[in-house]
Amino acid sequence: MTSLFAFVAARGRGAMLALPLLVAGCATLPSSGPTAPEVIAASRPTARLPAKLIDLDAEALSDVNTAPAPAGALAGLAAEGDIDRIGPGDVLQISVFEIGTALFAGPAVTEVQPAATGSTLPAIVVARDGTIQIPYAGAVEAAGQTPQSLARSVEARLRGYSEQAQVNIVVRENMTNSVFVLGGVKAPGRIPLSLAREHVLDAIALAGGTTSAPHDTMIRVTRAGRSAEIGLDELLAGSPDDLLLLPGDRIELLRNLQSFTVFGASDKVSEIPFEMRRLTLAQAVARAGGPSDRQADPTAVFVFRWAAPETPGGAPVPVIYRLNMLRPESYFVSQRFAMRNGDVIYIANARSNQAAKLVQIINQLFSPFYGVRELTR
Asked: Which domains does the chain have, with CATH numbers?
């Protein structure tokens, strides 16, 4: 500050009058954010929102990257179940084959031997109470049966009315044994299940595939009132999370754009998407353009994060991670530090910037007077 007084004194008495104003303005010079000591001060117990300050090194990495397993992995919803049971709303196609006198197609007898006659009944919808109405057989309980067992039930009801009636039943519209695929797919809707047994990824493919990148897509499966989620790019075919689907399952594809925000002494303040499921601090700083060599303090690269509660049911904990990029080992550490969605990277301003900005302001303030003085000599 002594050089500042000398600088102002050289400008004359008018400059001396402005000196108190300039000194008072030292604390209010334009800045893109706090300096490193000011950020560190936020970790003191007396701060308004005390944060936990952690210096990033090899010892800290094991704790930093230890995240709880994703709650509700799809494998936890695995269950056994049938996909060939008839239920209300299903549309059945019933064919009856008879020998001799036919109930459904009239007499068909030749002089040599009785002829076999086949008749197809109009499509029948399973009623809300789970029954179907068959001519001559009356109401037959269909819900909960397979097509084969229902055919045997109808044959038993027709016995005595038709000679050796044989019944074939096909589910023409499968409403009961189906799943719903919703959200970010090209053709959302109901997908019937087949005896080939479809998995989660099969249903997504049958729905036309996703409309967004896999790393930005979450899959939520709801089964029997329980839900679980997993990233689409983390779901591998044939893995335990690629569930065998059961009737009534709901699959939702949700867009989950992951991003981090950059502030401070960087070339541009911005929100930057991950564009991948796992992003390291080294990659994040590089995408942000790195610390500005004109104003940044490379010893003070901070990551602000709301960490998981330290106790079950507790409140999230504000944590500040500090990286010193003047240390060579920090570049190895930054390659192992995993970014999380919503993280904030702050690159602190160098403390020397304040003095440089003050000198610049003084030069701008007095250069007109100095120019006039030189011209009037």
From this structure: 22-55+259-367 (3.10.560.10), 74-81+178-255 (3.10.560.10), 91-173 (3.30.1950.10)
